[in-house]
TrEMBL record:
Residues 85-89 are annotated as: G2. It comes from Hydrogenophaga bisanensis. Residues 1-11 have a biased composition (Pro residues). This is GTPase Era. An essential GTPase that binds both GDP and GTP, with rapid nucleotide exchange. Plays a role in 16S rRNA processing and 30S ribosomal subunit biogenesis and possibly also in cell cycle regulation and energy metabolism. Residues 197-199 are annotated as: G5. Residues 241-325 form the KH type-2 domain.
Amino acid sequence: MSIPSRPPTPSPADQDLEAMLARALGKDDATEASAPPPAEEPVEVDPADQRCGFVAIVGKPNVGKSTLLNALVGQKISITSRKAQTTRHRITGYRTVGANQFVFVDTPGFQTRHGNALNRSLNKTVLGAVADVDLILFVVEAGRFNLADAKVLDLLPKGIPVVLLANKFDLIHRRGELAPWLRSMQERHAFAEYVPMSAKNPRDIQRLFAICEKYLPQQPWMHDPEELTDRSERFMAAEMVREKLFRLTGDELPYTSTVIIDKFEQEGALRRVAATIVVEREGHKGMVIGEKGEKLKRIGTEARQELEKLWDCKVFLELWVKVRSGWADDDARVRSFGYE
Ligand SMILES: Nc1nc2c(ncn2[C@@H]2O[C@H](COP(=O)(O)OP(=O)(O)OP(=O)(O)O)[C@@H](O)[C@H]2O)c(=O)[nH]1
């Protein structure tokens, strides 16, 4: 990519940005389809040589944080959908690459519009997640920055390096136009790095590991290198049903619908799960169940298939739908449904 013309003597900050841009955009074409070599498998590393640290992924809703976490971990541990506010909990995923162990913290997108109990709880989760990390990946959509992004940026603690991760770079058709935008971002915050990329491009993910590793402190790993997440199977089951619920009901169903697990049992290689989808109004129930129960059946089938893939075993999944009006406005109920 060529950088548009600029003053003859760029300032040191400009030069740094040029170098980062050249590294980020230079010879690599982010949309190239050729797959990179697979991430290095965990190897035996002397604890004295190990590095391990926390990397928080933050940003407003729908910028691609969960897609990024799944790609970094190499397994689907955080659900994604086109609907904003899909991620409701702090989710931690691990990845060990060579001597480096990354502990990624995914956060719900910060909510600035409504002040209900659910959103207050989500915002507290975001702030808690970034307070004590080694690096923050601040995710925005490449070429865009609005008030909601600015509010998240304002909340980030001082003294922790922040990488500006300009995601969905594949949607930018004229790449040259990104340079002025990146310069304007440079004025907003002293970002440690500027990384235009696509969370859906494996080569970009590889590049991101290389960028992040230098921020990890030298210390022994905290987790078994084979381990991927701190979330339980029970939690993953509820999340997978929630993802299918949001994907298959489209925009009509309010984001306040949730899923609770009533039963989780393991019988040899079979897992039996019973879950309830909780909606706010009687009218929403029909949207979830669909004509002759078709929608609910599809939600169940797709969630079951994903869980079977994740756990590599047979799953028996039973789904129910219940109405509980006003749960997202009720602090006690928000807690009872598993939000911190
Ligand atoms: N074109 C393109 N789409 C992307 C990219 N990354 C994510 N998406 C899409 O953006 C949408 C939102 O992605 P999520 O990963 O759910 O976003 P999120 O930031 O976790 O959203 P919340 O859970 O609402 O906070 C999904 O439809 C993704 O497929 C990308 O690099 N390129």
